[in-house]
Amino acid sequence: MADSAKYQNRIELLQGTLDMLVLHALLRGPVHGYAIAQVIRSRSGEVLTVETGSLYPALHRLERQRWVKSEWKLTESKQRAKYYQLTVLGKKQLTTDHQRWLQLVRAIGAVMEPEAQP
Amino acid sequence: MKIWRWDSAKESLSEELEFHLKMAIAERVARGEEPAQARAAALREFGNLSLIKDVTRARWGGLGLENLLHDIHHALRQLRRAPAFTATALLTLAFGIGANLGVFQLLYAVILADLPVPHPQEVVVVHVARSPFDHDWEISYPAYQRLRASTPDIPLIATAYAGDANVEILNHAPVKAFCRLVSSNYFSGLGVTPAAGRLFVEADEQQHGEWPAVLRYDFARSTFGSAQQAVGQHMLLNGQAFVVIGVAHRRFFGDVKGYPPALWIPLALQSTGKMGVGWDSLGPGHNVDLDKPWYNQPGIFWLTLMARIPSARRAAVLAHWDQVFRGDREVMTEATADPAAKAALLRVRSEAVPFNSGQSGMRKKFTAPLTLLMALSGSIFLVGCLNLANLQLARLHARAHELGMRMALGASRGRLLRQIVLEDALLVVAGSALAFVLGRAASGILVRWASSRNAGITLDLHPNLALVALGAGLMLLSLLCFSILPAMVFIRNGAVQTAGSRSKVAGIAQTASQRLRSNLLLGAQVSLSLLLSTMSGCFAATLAHWETVDVGMDREHVLIVRPELDGPRYADHSKQLPAFYQQIQERLQALPGVRSAAVGMCAGIHCGWITALYAHGRAGLTDAQVHGQEDHVGLGFFATLGIPIVRGRDFASSDTDQTQAVAIINRAFAHQLFGDADPIGQWVGYEPAPNDKKFLIVGEVADARVNGAKDDPPPVVYMSINQHPAPVNSIRVRAIGDPGQLSQSVRRALHEVDPSMDIDEIVPLATDLDGDLGTEKLLARLAGIYASLTLLLVGIGFYGVMSSRATRRKNEFGIRLALGATRHRIQMLVVGQTVRILLAGIVPGAILSILAVRAASHFLYGSVSTNSLAIIAASLVLLFAGSIATLIPAQRAALADPLETLRSE
């Protein structure tokens, strides 16, 4: 019981940003869950590791919200894998999320800038 | 289907996560790690697989539903695994709830249901005056017309009892149908709407060719298929041509609860003389002619009144009617010579009685018995719940191992509680579904039981909101009693945690408080069961008493034949009737097995021919002294019925319409009129000063319960049918053996005398008398069923509890046996425990029973102390049943193997 609560808390914490990162990772076309984690890790310069315990719940939730859709396909190495793909709704969501993120970064940046002395 | 989708989705998720893991391992291997190490590292990085699955699945939503489906699956499996418990619980709930629903349905229909019309509280029964002999609230037609005309804006409705009529319809077998005469404003005044066609309008009061009739919905449906099809159909009612103009609303059962008419017909039908209308009149010598139409005779009282009056106007309207009615009240006083009775008649003031008040016959008769039955039904429900609670506790103990295991594996208390309660909820839902079916059937059967043979009851038994609410309430209550509370107690006590292993379970000693709790539950069951058994015994004894009480007549050997001699063939030739009766008597007495036969005006018990008799030379007799009943009988009537002649003589063939009119009175009437003096030779008459018609009393007979076994013998005066020739309503035959076996030969013999004689029915006197005992039969049968059910429940309860205790104490018994106790002693140990609980339950049960017997003394024959015998009998039965139920577990305990115990210890 306690363990599952811990996982859930982490998801809550990351939710907004993780969703954005996952949606962004799908921009270039359908990919499976493992690849999404890899993309995020490598593009963040190995800073952000998305744990499986956060990734899959997030993916399934996004699918339920119809921001992504999934289908089973074969990989290059002929293995069955579940590929996720952005939907139109998902793209819109990504744009809004991105806008809000930029706003937030700007706002936080403005707060953290050393103020000009009077 | 649903479950399959969930399962496939779950598989798909597993495959997805496995793929992820494979990729992670493959990548590590590609980077040059050892495959085994790579796998371990990947797994570590991955985290708790099943938890991730759970959390991911939670994202799908509807996990609660999945759990519920799972729990239901599990619950069904558990219930299937314990078929004995499941069956006991289902049946207990079905009977416990069903009995309550069945009785409540009746209670609702009789006591609570209002007229199914708009603003039913405005509809009132109007009491204006009591008729002089029958003391019914009936008035004459001219009086009704005056009252109705005096308040044109208030619908004043008149109805009259019309009994059964012969209904003949083309292509249908002729049937008897109960009719009611009603004024044309009956339906419009009450606010009843038609289900088809139209209802009465003012123009229907005059006849234009065929008479109009309105049918009751059920009658229309059963006769013509549907309400629509009934409209426009033609029929003959006692030979009169009728057309069906409409069918009343399906819920409208008439204005007399319990006795709905099949047809409503206009009041004007009375003038045809074809309907047997109920009446009271001023009596002979008051310018009353029953053979002429009654609409212009102020001395015949036959109309009961209803009205729709807004409550604000009630007092003013009633006061107004009192003024209009003053003259009619004076007419009514002519019926009595007693100044006190005259003054009392004049003092009566009109009143409006709410339609649904306790004064209506059905409600008056059944409110108390039904309330009592409801209380008994409540008790059986309670016994059922207590029993199930106890079984449930025993069952939870038996499942402690399983539950403990599940708790150890991480199931929360809430989840366990939910699981247990869900199992029982399934039981309750299934049991309640059965209960609704059972309750519906039961209310139908109860109505049949409550109906006496002499008056069948019909009630509107449609399910209603109150019934559904009661059902739902009982469901919740039973769930709370036998599931939620026991499960909470069990889980809170931590019995589950200690039950880690099976060996421990066997070793768990019941704590003292647990034992006390189950003993209390058993004891309470015993108390309630004793109450029900006692009541059942008392009711059975009461029924048996009324079925065998001395009625002053030869109850077992008399056959009553009810011929139809109404036709003009008989009525218009009354001079020939005495010879006709003699022919009948001689023919019947020639039959083998017949002792004697005689004719009588009354059709059987409940004749209700009320009369007033004045004794010559005894002025100042009060109304109460002169009132009695009358019957006109043929020769040999008293010998046929077995009523002994105490003084004087019987009627003789020499008493004819040419000789002095004579009368025979019974002891009760003689006592009323003459005290202890000899009545023989006294003169009596219908008038206060007997002048034109005097009767000489020639005989005195013993009292008989001619109004039914339960009613005291009324004062009766008998006249000779040969001195007042008229068509009779019954022929009585006294048999040597069983009267029922004579009916065929009697019927044949009567047809030999008169081939065209219609015979209504032939019934033994005993059947006629027992036909009155509807309430007693209802109470005795239902209480009997309840008592047997609770006995069974108590038996099951003791068996269940003692079995589980014996199992738990197996080691102890083994040790006792090893130490030299005899098997008999072990048995006694178990049975002794049962007996102690039984005794502890019997004491409060006996107190409860005494209180109940006191409260119900109205329905019981015999004193509280005689009925207390029933308590003792019931206690013995309970002791016996409880001990028998414990014998098997006791036997099993006594067979405990000491060696096995020693080995396991």
Written overview of the protein:
- The complex is a heterodimer of chains A (118) and B (905).
- With 118 residues, chain A is an alpha+beta fold.
- Chain A has one domain (2-112): Arc Repressor Mutant, subunit A, CATH 1.10.10.10.
- Helices cover 62% and strands 14% of the residues of chain A.
- Chain A contains four helices and three strands; from the N terminus they run αβααββα.
- Chain A has a three-stranded antiparallel sheet with strand order 1-3-2.
- In chain A, α1 (2-25) crosses α3 (52-64) and α1 (2-25) packs across α4.
- Chain A is globular and about 60 Å long.
- Chain A starts with a helix and ends in a 6-residue tail after the last helix.
- The model of chain A is unreliable at 1-14 (pLDDT under 50).
- Chain B is α+β, with helices and mostly antiparallel strands and 905 residues long.
- Chain B has five domains: 2-61; 77-113 and 361-508, no CATH class; 120-354, no CATH class; 517-547 and 772-905, no CATH class; 566-756, no CATH class.
- Chain B has 30 helices and 24 strands.
- The longest helix of chain B is centred in the middle third of the chain and has 38 residues, at 361-398.
- Chain B starts with a helix and ends with a helix.
- The interface between A and B is medium-sized, with 24 and 26 residues.
